[in-house]
Write a sequence for this structure.
């Protein structure tokens, strides 16, 4: 009987709850809890390794169904290119491909996070393009409601997706979702630092994939903690054969391209496979949960006076920190036409000059080829390795 | 020359297979070049490698050497590496740095303009410390100059000499192939002297390089300029003018990639005798390379929607290498 | 660190450099008046030239936009003549009225680009350019840091704001006059077939002010429009406050103030213009989305979009403008055969 209620729309549910008069309070509460759930399929664009957290957000915060997207393919990119303006930054195109595949997969709600720079306008344009293609959907666009911050966003969620959300519960689950993202970042950091040195190839990858699977099944903060704990146990037990002075490379750059593997063609994995200890300060945790721009900027006050853009302070601060810590090289990754990261380059150059640290600058667009990237990375690695060998001699 | 015996001095082979030209060298244990070959790839890297091998074999006919290791570099390094059983397969940036710093230990900056690539390598204490490559566009590279030469009805080899006769190089916008071509057509129509246009093109190639690939790099002397375009005196002259410094061009400058990969093979040491392939006897068999039929085939993997194009290399009927798969699903077993 | 938070430069500052590029086209009157009233000599670089663009191109990252390269060229042009540059940082605290991040990063970008020349840069940070009070505070604080008395600074700022308002009004009046002249002409010609054909098409140029009014960048476009018999109106000259207000009818989430003003002005003028020529500097971040929005949302007015980069000559411009204006004419006449 409950099942019947779940497929009804919001307007009918109140009546449904009324129909349970006569049952005990506790049962009624429990049933009402189930009734808050909407069977709308919610999809979020593909982004790096955060899909389990997006799923948690859709299921536990929005209290809807989640539509998981399979891995991006060449077709995704082609769809994106076809339906985007030519000179728009590349993440827009990736997302367009994601949206079309999500809608083909039956998505009812698309979640666009919005944000600084052009990202703030992505949602409105993408919605318009998709509608002109004839798709019917709701877009939850966090560029709306932004003036009022969290309150505005909560209103937006209730208005567009689910009016029956239990707000205190939703807030609690939102925090849990944030904690999952932080834990994903932490796990990835460990993975990137060590996977290049595992004695049995693929051990880290398997542990990481198990963590993603486990996180995808989580429904409560406690389950998140347990899943993360068992990943850490497993990771600690992986045998490593790490040289005393491994090659260490720091990845810096733009928020989407430097992290998202479909965009950067598995940049971090490629470096790990060469036997590199990879670091990337840029992630959700350091840009959002623990972001303190003025403090971070203090560490680079020799170079800049102001906040230079969405992730520029983080980019420059990371470059300087890696240089100070004696890293062997930096890889700066951004999408074509990324204004803030283009403007960061003169500053990175100064840091590189002062600390004598080589930087490989990578600009990704939809035409970037795997082989071209590999040649550059291999050459970069060879250069760092020879330099290191000479310095240790 | 005794190919398949244990007699003779040890030597190493290096082949650089680029999109336009293929280069090969053989070096002795003392790293001296004892045979060299340079010819057009003509869109057939495997064939070009065979022709290079034949040419080298001819030059070594009377030499008492046996080749105990080989390295490949360039865009078809993997294919030809599989073909000749190379011990070292290295990207061209590293190979060039290795080759040039060996011949010019004091070099600080390597400028290189090849058929479709251009790069800059900064060197300190004999080791590359920084480098950059051109982006997508082929403007200002060898193929660009060749096509402009064709437009002007001049052999590209003549370009340098003609350029040096100009007193007033024309101002040509060579940042982009398309713009350069329209600018060129315009200048021809307006009636600029041919040598001034050619000198202008050479100058544009040099300044374009410095503004693009060389931007933000400290260009310190000694400077070595290499790659196919380094044979063009006009471009060399423009570089010297723009940099205000002497620019060295090695007579073997176009062979540095091949030389570097031979050096890397020398460093790796002699191969261990394999079961089959050109090194089956422990020494490289030039004839075997000619006799085997090498074929590449592209297969589209259908195991996931990525549809990776997998390149398979066959020696006669055996598949000896494959690449292009982005995941394990597309892995192909080799014999 | 050459960016002055306090007066810490060894050399006295008398001459302040203002590059004639980017937002100088929008706030130039304010900046010049402010510094002059504070007792400084202001040196504004000359109009953009080939040499300036080339110098800017050399100093810039290859991928930077044309407008940014031009700015660096102007800096290089007058670097030897000035004691310090004034380069503000305009941030985007308000998500609906911000700027391209270029204007936020500019002082630091210039400082790092020209680090070897050790430029002195006077700067301030404005986080919401439409908040008059906070903007004033930022300017007064900067003047105080430079050693001015607060009362003096206040007076200077007042004059500066008045000067800017006068400049803005003059531009808005120019626009209004252009529009009303064409409308008058139309009225007079109404009903007379031959005369109606004579009425020049009114073309609205939709472009950032530093593109629209930099002759070196877009002069060819203006000339081509005029040669083809069109009359030009500039969207950026429209009354800014009115245009901004109107822009919310164009888009709710458009993040950039200048694009908003352009959009609002376009809507305000949509009924009186015959066509739109929108011009972007390659590669312009905001315009990469805005142009698409403009094409979709101002659907009933014909639009020609042109992208200008450092390399493109003027060859294609004349042809494109001519054929565009031909289309406008034929459209008005209801077909080719009547022409």
């Amino acid at each position: 009987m409950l099942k019947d209620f779940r497929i009804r729309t919001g307007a009918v549910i109140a009546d449904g709850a009324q129909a349970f008069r006569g049952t005990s309070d506790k049962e009624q509460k429990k049933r009402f809890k189930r009734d808050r759930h909407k069977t709308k399929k919610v999809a979020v664009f593909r982004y790096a390794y955060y899909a389990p957290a997006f799923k948690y957000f859709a299921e536990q915060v929005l209290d809807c169904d989640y539509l998981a997207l399979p891995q991006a393919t060449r077709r995704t990119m082609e769809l994106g290119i076809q339906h985007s303006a030519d000179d728009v930054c590349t993440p827009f195109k990736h997302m367009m491909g994601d949206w079309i595949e999500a809608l083909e997969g039956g998505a009812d709600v698309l979640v666009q996070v919005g944000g600084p720079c052009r990202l703030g306008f992505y949602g409105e344009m993408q919605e318009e393009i998709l509608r002109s293609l004839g798709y019917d959907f709701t877009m939850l666009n966090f560029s709306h409601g932004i003036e009022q911050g969290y309150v505005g966003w909560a209103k937006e969620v209730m208005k567009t997706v689910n009016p029956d959300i239990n707000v205190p519960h939703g807030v609690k689950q939102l925090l849990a979702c944030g904690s999952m993202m932080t834990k994903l970042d932490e796990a990835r950091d460990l993975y990137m630092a060590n996977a290049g040195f595992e004695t049995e190839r693929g051990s880290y990858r398997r542990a990481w994939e198990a963590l993603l699977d486990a996180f995808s099944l989580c429904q409560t903060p406690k389950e998140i903690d347990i899943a993360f704990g068992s990943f850490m146990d497993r990771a600690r037990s992986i045998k490593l054969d790490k040289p005393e002075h491994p090659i260490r490379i720091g990845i810096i750059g733009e928020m989407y391209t430097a992290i998202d593997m479909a965009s950067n063609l598995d940049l971090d994995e490629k470096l790990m496979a060469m036997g590199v200890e990879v670091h990337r300060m840029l992630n959700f945790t350091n840009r959002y949960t623990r972001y303190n721009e003025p403090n971070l900027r203090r560490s680079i006050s020799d170079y800049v006076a102001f906040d230079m853009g969405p992730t520029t302070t983080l980019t420059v601060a990371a470059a300087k920190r890696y240089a100070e810590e004696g890293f062997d090289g930096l890889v700066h990754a951004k999408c074509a036409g990324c204004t803030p990261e283009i403007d960061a380059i003169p500053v990175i150059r100064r840091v590189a000059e002062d600390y004598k640290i080589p930087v490989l600058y990578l600009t990704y667009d939809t035409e970037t080829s795997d082989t071209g990237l590999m040649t550059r990375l291999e050459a970069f690695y060879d250069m760092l390795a020879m330099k290191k060998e000479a310095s240790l001699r | 020359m005794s190919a398949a015996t244990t007699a003779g001095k040890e030597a190493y082979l290096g082949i650089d297979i680029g999109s336009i030209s293929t280069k090969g060298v053989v070096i002795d244990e003392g790293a001296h070049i004892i045979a060299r070959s340079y010819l057009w790839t003509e869109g057939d890297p495997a064939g070009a490698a065979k022709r290079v091998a034949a040419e080298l074999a001819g030059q070594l006919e009377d030499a008492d050497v046996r080749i105990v290791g080989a390295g490949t570099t360039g865009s078809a390094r993997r294919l030809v590496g599989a073909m000749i059983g190379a011990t070292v397969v290295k990207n061209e940036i590293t190979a060039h740095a290795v080759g040039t710093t060996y011949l010019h230990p004091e070099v600080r900056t390597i400028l290189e303009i090849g058929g479709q690539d251009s790069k800059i390598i900064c060197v300190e204490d004999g080791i590359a410390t920084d480098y950059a490559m051109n982006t997508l566009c082929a403007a200002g590279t060898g193929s660009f100059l060749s096509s402009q030469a064709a437009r002007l009805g001049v052999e590209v080899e003549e370009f340098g000499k003609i350029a040096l006769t100009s007193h007033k190089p024309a101002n040509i916008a060579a940042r982009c192939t398309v713009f350069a071509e329209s600018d060129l057509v315009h200048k021809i129509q307006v009636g600029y002297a041919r040598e001034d246009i050619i000198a202008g093109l050479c100058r544009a190639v040099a300044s374009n390089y410095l503004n693009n690939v060389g931007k933000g790099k400290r260009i310190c002397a000694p400077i070595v300029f290499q790659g196919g375009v380094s044979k063009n005196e006009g471009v060399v002259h423009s570089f010297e003018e723009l940099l205000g410094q002497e620019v060295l061009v090695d007579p073997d400058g176009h062979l540095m990639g091949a030389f570097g990969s031979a050096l890397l093979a020398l460093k790796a040491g002699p191969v261990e005798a394999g079961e089959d392939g050109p090194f089956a006897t422990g020494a490289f068999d030039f004839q075997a390379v000619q006799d085997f039929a090498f074929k590449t085939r592209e297969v589209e993997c259908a195991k996931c929607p990525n549809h990776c194009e997998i390149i398979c290399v066959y020696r006669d009927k055996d598949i000896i290498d494959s690449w292009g798969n982005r995941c394990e699903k597309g892995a192909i077993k080799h014999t | 660190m050459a960016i002055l938070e306090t007066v810490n430069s060894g050399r006295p500052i008398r001459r302040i450099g203002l590059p004639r590029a980017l937002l100088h086209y929008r706030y130039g009157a304010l900046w010049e008046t402010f510094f002059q009233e504070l007792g400084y000599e202001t040196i504004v670089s000359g109009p953009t030239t080939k040499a300036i663009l080339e110098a800017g191109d050399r100093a810039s990252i290859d991928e930077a936009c044309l407008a940014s390269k031009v700015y660096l060229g102007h800096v290089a042009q007058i670097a030897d003549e000035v004691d310090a540059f004034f380069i503000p940082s305009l941030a985007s605290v308000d998500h609906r009225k911000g700027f391209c991040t270029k204007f936020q990063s500019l002082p630091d970008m210039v400082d790092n680009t020209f680090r070897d020349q050790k430029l002195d840069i006077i700067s301030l940070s404005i986080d919401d350019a439409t908040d008059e009070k906070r903007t004033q505070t930022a300017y007064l604080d900067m003047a105080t840091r430079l050693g001015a008395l607060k009362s003096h600074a206040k007076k200077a700022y007042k004059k500066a704001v008045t000067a800017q308002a006068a400049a803005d009004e003059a531009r808005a009046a120019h626009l209004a006059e252009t529009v009303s002249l064409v409308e008058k002409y139309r009225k007079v010609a109404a009903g007379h077939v031959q005369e109606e054909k004579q009425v020049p098409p009114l073309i609205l140029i939709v472009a950032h002010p530093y593109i629209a009014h930099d002759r070196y960048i877009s002069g060819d476009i203006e000339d081509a429009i005029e040669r083809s018999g069109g009359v030009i109106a500039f969207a950026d000259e429209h009354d800014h406050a009115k245009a901004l207000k109107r822009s919310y009818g164009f888009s709710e989430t458009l993040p950039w103030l200048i694009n908003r003003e352009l959009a609002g002005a376009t809507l305000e003028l949509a009924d009186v213009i015959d066509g739109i020529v929108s011009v972007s500097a390659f590669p312009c971040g905001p315009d990469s989305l805005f142009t698409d929005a403009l094409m979709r949302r101002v659907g009933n007015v014909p639009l020609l979009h042109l992208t200008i980069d450092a390399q493109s000559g003027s060859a294609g411009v004349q042809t494109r403008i001519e054929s565009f204006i031909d289309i406008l004419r034929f459209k008005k006449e209801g077909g080719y055969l009547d022409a």
Observations:
- The first strand of chain A starts at residue 41 and ends at 44.
- Chain A has four domains: 1-33, 37-165, 166-242, 245-393.
- The CA atoms of residues 180 and 225 of chain A lie 8 Å apart.
